[in-house]
Amino acid sequence: MLEFGGTGWRSLYITYCENEARTINTPKTTILEPIYEKYIGLQNLSSFWSIGGQYITDFVSVRGDIAHNGRSARYITRNELIQFNDTMKYTAREMDNQICTYIFNMVTATVQPWRKMK
To answer: Model pTM?
Structure first.
């Protein structure tokens, strides 16, 4: 209980978040959504993604297939790889901006928690 005193609660909370994040091997939508809900109260994380949750799940599956099966995995063309890369960058930026807004509204702050990306 003494760990909660002063700012100890914050350190303990961060430790719990970091420990759970380390256990994630396949960041599929069905794994990410409960974690975001548990730690910041955000429901339906995938609703922030214009591409939807299934695309992320499919991407993680393709990545996992390549990582675990190497040459026997389905062949990915250069164009597919570029599309995956561009889409993931866009989705990360989109999610970062939406979470910034979510946190801003949640704590009714007068300043955004971080600068949104363009």
So the answer is: 0.77
The residue type of 56 is I
Residue pair 34/69 in contact (Cβ under 8 Å)? The answer is no
Residue 57 vs residues 9, 25, 52, 91: alpha-carbon distances, Å: 33, 13, 9, 13
Query: What beta strand segments (E) does the chain contain?
Result: none
Proportion of the chain in helix, strand, coil states, percent, rounded to 5 = 70, 0, 30
Per-domain residue ranges of the chain: 26-106
Q: Which of 50, 80, 86 is nearest to 65 (CA)?
A: 80
Give mean pLDDT, residues 6-15: 83
- Note the pLDDT tens digit of each residue in 30-86: 999 999 999 889 999 999 899 999 999 999 999 999 999 998 999 999 999 999 999
Q: How far apart are CA 80 and CA 83, in angstroms?
A: 5
